[in-house]
Write a structure and sequence with these properties.
The protein is an all-alpha fold. The protein contains six helices and no strands. Helix content is about 85%, strand content about 0%. It is elongated. The two termini are about 20 Å apart.
């Protein structure tokens, strides 16, 4: 059924993101990794272009994981029991996530593999209570994300 209001469409989209975060460990891992990348990027001193590239990579990775979850859920709803074509569909969707994760790692290496900038970033982090506090907060959020938010809720 088509949503008549934009607010309803938006609510359903947020429900999909929340559902994916609760259901998929890899999505939660990607959120945690994104937070650490953003934190380190701030200390590293990225250019506007590098920030844009990081934002696109993070966004696309989360989109790919969400689509992977949608494919898995649709296949599971359509096929009961083992079916080789269903397995191939789910494997292909997971493969897309793997391919983009590898591409993301390559982008990260190209951006962050500069010894002088790395040393400067680590110096900024070590000497800044703000960066250390942010790291601790991200770490606490990550623990919550994996141990509390990831609990599957069968009510709905």
């Amino acid at each position: 059924m088509k949503n008549k209001k934009f607010s309803a469409s938006l609510r359903h989209a947020f429900d999909g993101v929340i559902y994916t975060a609760k259901l998929e460990r890899n999505f939660r891992f990607d959120i945690a990794a994104a937070l650490y990348v953003i934190w380190f990027s701030a200390a590293y001193g990225l250019s506007r272009t590098e920030w844009a590239l990081i934002a696109v990579v993070i966004g696309v990775m989360l989109v790919v994981e969400t689509i992977n979850t949608a494919v898995e859920q649709a296949v599971d709803a359509a096929v009961h029991g083992y079916e080789i074509h269903a397995k191939h569909a789910k494997d292909a969707a997971a493969g897309a996530s793997l391919i983009f994760a590898a591409a993301s790692a390559a982008v990260a290496l190209l951006i962050f593999f500069d010894v002088d900038r790395l040393l400067a970033a680590f110096t900024r982090i070590i000497n800044s209570p703000v960066y250390i506090t942010a790291f601790v907060l991200i770490s606490l959020f990550t623990l919550w994300l994996f141990f509390k938010a990831g609990k599957k809720n069968n009510k709905k």
